Task: structure prediction
Amino acid sequence: MSNSTDFIIGFDPGRQKCGIAVMRADRQVVYHQVVPSEEAIATIQSLCQKFPIHQLVIGDQTSSKTWKQQLASVLNPSLSLIMVDERYSTLEARDRYWQMYPPKGLLRFLPKGMRQPPRPIDDIVAIVLIERYLAKK
Result:
């Protein structure tokens, strides 16, 4: 049984950049960031020291098997690594971005489908991946 002090890391791996998010079991996001790929493992390691993390949810697409092997070799073996279907997560994350950061000024008048977030949203994808995992539990 999980409680609100259980934390899950979401990881959206990529070749240049990765999205990382930490969410409590009660779905409260406590951290989300886009980091260069070469900093991803160190960032995850430091988050594992900062929060009592029991699970890492990773997207199943871009080079995820390689990432999973690398993570398994450096992280605490008690941390379970869970692969999650990543299809359409970027589209879902784009909508989520605008929910989290409502458009201002003239952007409000652009049709939703034409709005592009002003920054990479890999961290929002990581949040979506955790939510997909929690929805299946």
The radius of gyration is 15 Å.
